[in-house]
Backbone:
């Protein structure tokens, strides 16, 4: 059977992609960011997943305000790179896994999650920046990807508990798939940051550190964080961290923290990253 063997959480800051694409990775400002992923690139090269499930949020690339699905799974064979206003990122197109994606849709819908099926979709920095950080510069990504897009832009967004339980349902779905696949699930976005208004540039290291600690040892406590606390403590975009709970819900209760990296600032954002391996 297929199985989820590990989870990766990673911020998807667009300026990181721009720095990488424009040859600025060795500049003093950006070098610490990319150095922080050297271990991660070696880890995933050794781990060799067959498929990735990447949980991210769209930034008005695939969906406009006319249609905003709460949860949407890309079931296409491939996903072009979106033009976010300055041309598509110069990275490989994303190859999908339609069979696994369709199976996850069927299983989660029967488990009473209302999942939107997307058969044509462009993917933006929310998905591609974590791939660049984890795999570096590639002619092609090393494995297929199942994109799972979550609305964390337009209120109401799903609760942390709902996201965690979706992760549980995704794990069940993967384990009922009849191909032998090693799957790694990504949760992206965050950490604390606000992009506009009087609190633009807000970073809350204490909250971020506690969130990373509890992602490993007490994820149930994170499922009880209300929307207003994310807004107050982590800024208007900090709500993206609920997507990390989908990743965590898909793992074992007991996990091993293989690696952690935290850096501020990257652009005007706190960059967070953690790798969790199932204990068994």
Residues:
């Amino acid at each position: 059977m297929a199985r989820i063997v590990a989870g990766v959480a990673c911020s998807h800051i667009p300026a990181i992609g721009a720095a990488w694409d424009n040859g600025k990775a060795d500049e003093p400002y950006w070098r610490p960011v990319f150095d922080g992923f050297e271990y991660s690139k070696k880890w995933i090269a050794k781990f060799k997943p067959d498929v990735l499930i990447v949980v991210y949020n769209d930034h008005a690339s695939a969906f406009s305000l006319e249609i905003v699905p709460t949860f949407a799974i890309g079931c296409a064979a491939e996903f072009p790179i979106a033009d976010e206003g300055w041309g598509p990122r110069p990275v490989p197109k994303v190859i999908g896994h339609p069979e696994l994606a369709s199976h996850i849709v069927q299983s989660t819908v029967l488990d009473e999650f209302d999942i939107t099926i997307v058969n044509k979709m462009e993917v933006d920095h929310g998905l591609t920046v974590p791939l660049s950080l984890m795999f570096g510069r590639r002619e092609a990504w090393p494995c297929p990807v199942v994109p799972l897009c979550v609305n964390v832009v337009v209120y109401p967004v799903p609760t942390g508990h709902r996201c965690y339980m979706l992760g549980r349902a995704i794990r069940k779905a993967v384990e009922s798939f009849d191909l032998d696949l090693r799957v790694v699930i990504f949760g992206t976005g965050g950490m604390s940051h606000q992009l506009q208004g009087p609190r633009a540039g807000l970073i809350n290291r204490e909250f971020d550190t506690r969130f990373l600690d509890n992602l490993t040892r007490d994820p149930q406590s994170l499922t009880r964080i209300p929307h207003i606390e994310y807004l107050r403590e982590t800024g208007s975009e900090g709500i993206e961290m609920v997507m990390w709970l989908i990743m965590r819900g898909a793992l074992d209760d007991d996990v091993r923290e293989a690696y952690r990296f935290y850096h501020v600032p990257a652009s005007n954002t706190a960059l967070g990253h953690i790798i969790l391996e199932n204990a068994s």
Q: What stands out?
A: The chain has one domain: 10-278. Residues 10-278 form a domain with the Protocatechuate 4,5-dioxygenase; Chain B fold (CATH 3.40.830.10). The chain is about 35% helix and 20% strand.
